[in-house]
Amino acid sequence: MSDPRRKATSKFLSFVLRHEPEAVGLSLDAAGWVEVDELLKALAAHHRPLSRAELEDLVATNDKRRFAFSEDGGRIRASQGHSTAVELGYEPAEPPDVLFHGTVHRLLPSIREAGLQRMQRHHVHLSADVPTARNVGRRRGAPVILRVDARAMREAGHVFFRTPNDVWLTETVPSTFIAGLDDD
Ligand code: HQG
Q1: Is 0.85 topped by the overall pTM?
Q2: How far apart are CA 85 and CA 145, in angstroms?
């Protein structure tokens, strides 16, 4: 598959598996899974034909490992990032003491006030390393890296989940646990 096609297909799969499965006539089960056969049929019916081998290749090579097959390979889902109602069923996990969030300067006043909110997603997304957070922030402009005191959050009873692609999820991060919010 060519790189542009790979990228476009990955974007479309994210759209279908995270946000609007009904756009291709699919519905996800409660945990976000869809039958691979049904997905391939739906894609073909909507002028986006993809073979099973191409899908497998795309899942295996996706830069952020956004998609995962079920153990038997019969179903597929997005590993995180949904705006549809799904319960992914990740077990709470113990985060490293510090996690990072990449954002941009213009959002800091609001984050200072409300903390990190999940916005359109189901959780706030955090990374265990600075380079990943920087790449996330860069999507919106010059990245600003916030340091989250995950250890103190855990001690205060906040729950964290880790996705198979190493994204750390939590409901909200109150600003008291965030360093790097000062303007200068
Ligand atoms: C900001 C991509 C104002 C937050 C990435 C972010 C990541 C606030 C934006 C994954 C706020 C939400 C997640 C507040 C948070 N006031 N702004 N109180 N609280 N924000 O995209 O973390 O390609 O929903 O800083 O690479 O940027 O989808 O979250 O700028 O891994 O696989 O509101 O999405 O991965 O933006 O990115 P997003 P995110 P995928």
Answers
A1: no
A2: 29
